[in-house]
Amino acid sequence: MSRRSTIEKKTGKSDPIYRNRLVNMMVNRILKHGKKSLAYRILYKAMKDIKQKTKKNPLSVLRQAIRRVTPNVTVKARRLGGSTYQVPIEIKSAQGKALAIRWLLGASRKRSGRSMAFKLSYELIDAARDSGDAIRKKEETHRMAEANRAFAHFR
Question: Is 4 inside a domain boundary?
Answer without folding.
Answer: no
